[in-house]
Write a structure and sequence with these properties.
The chain is built from eight helices and no strands. By secondary structure, the chain is mainly alpha-helical. The chain has one domain. Helix 3 packs parallel to helix 7 and helix 5 packs antiparallel against helix 7. The longest helix has 36 residues. The relative contact order is 0.11.
Length: 173
Amino acid sequence: MNKNKILCNLDLVLAGIAFTVLVAVTFGGVIFRYILSSPIMWAEEVQLWCFLWITFLGAGAAFRYGSHVAVEIVFDLLPAKVQKVLTLINYIIVMGILIYLLFLGADLLSLMLKIHKTTAILRVPMWFINSIIPIGCVVMMISTTYDHYVHHIKHQPTDDAADHAAADGAKEA
């Protein structure tokens, strides 16, 4: 995998690392608790951080790849002009929610910096853990803006449409 691809998918790589850590800590916690009768005290803290980081990093990647769940049956039946209007309204609503969440995350981050709160067992600063909220929101905003620009302003086909076109071309050949 080349450097540009890794850099463009850094959120996905970091979410994958967080997922790997989550699985390893959870598996290790089970082994230590039930086989060795010595639970890992810090496991729950690390699991919660990993869930938070996977959620916000994975959501950015999902925006970029169009992987969020959508029911498009009614949307596909509408005329093209109505679809364009609804797509723009959807984009505005999503951006509004992400901007609101960005400000809430920034406020939380500011509060954590002021009060110097740390986690109970490992004493990791909470600002570090919660910093993923505004970072994830910015990544989601960039990803959804890029997706909207490419598919609705430049009118490039989605990957699904390109796959169908390639399959149709292969059938004709």
